[in-house]
Amino acid sequence: MTHRSSHPVEKAARRCSGRKCSGGWWKLATAAAAISPTALIAFFNRYQKKYVVPTTPEQMPLPGDDLLTDEGRNEVTMQIEIDAPPEKVWPLINQLGQHKAGFYSFSLFENMVHFRIHNTYEPQTKWQDTKAGDWTFYGQQGIGHEIVLFEPGKYFVGRSDSRIPVTTDGAYAWTPAGTRDFAWTWGFFLEELPDGRTLFTTRNLSWADITNTAQATVVAGLMWGWSSGVMQTRMLENIKACAEGRRFLKL
User: Which terminus of the chain, N or C, has less C-beta within 10 A?
Assistant: First the structure.
């Protein structure tokens, strides 16, 4: 006999799991989870691991792995297959940023912390001039990364490192409470697959010089690490839907 979970969020998701809903189950899931904050946290904890690949830079090397080599670094790699060729995906990821198309994620959550992000879900010619040296803003506060590696149509990698001076006006390298220095990279990679499909991979490397473990765990670990996993998972799903020309719920 097949076991069917009684979890309120998963029950809501099952009721809207068909193609017709195409993402609409989020509204039901959120409403159901409002009954229990614990259920909501449990749901998003599973959700943020949905596309995580159990690998390491040593097992699956990618460009930019050598940009952050400090001992004790953390690594998260995500992958999703897209039923569209790379040339359909590239213009979407090439316009990421608070000053451009946003991040295709939960703008509702982003704007709750005053990031002022307004997602645009179609490629815009005016935002396709991205290049190495550009700063990608995550929000109006100036946090973001500098694009260090850039291979048009294939990949780019951004880096933020509090040990490296930032030269872009209004930008800064974030150092969370409880750390002396903080650094991360965020890479986006497209690989052409047979039958006009694309393997979309993201990789995050991060490192911190921790001065207060409790503060760093809350700020960098939970608020940054956990929440960014949730947001990035949604980003992958929305980019896939955009490239495939599917309708989805924009939150």
Answer: N
Could you report the per-residue pLDDT of 154-203, keeping only the tens digit for each? 999 999 999 999 999 999 999 988 999 999 999 999 999 999 999 999 99
205 or 18: which carries more pLDDT confidence?
205
- Is 135 within 8 Å of 171 (Cβ atoms)? yes
- Both structure tokens of 187: 């890479």
Residue 154 CB: number of other CB atoms within 10 A? 14
Please state the length of the chain. 251
Helix (H) or strand (E) holding 185: strand 179-193
For the chain, the farthest-separated pair of C-alpha atoms sits apart, in whole angstroms, at 61
Instruction: Specify the residue for token string 């990949």.
Output: 155
The one-character DSSP state at 211 is: S
Give me the pLDDT at residue 157, please: 98
pLDDT attached to residue 229? 86
Gap between the Cα atoms of 118 and 10, Å rounded: 29
The upper half-sphere exposure of residue 11, i.e. CA atoms within 13 Å in the direction of its Cβ, equals 8
Q: Is the pLDDT assigned to residue 231 strictly greater than 50?
A: yes
Q: Is the pTM of this model over 0.70?
A: yes
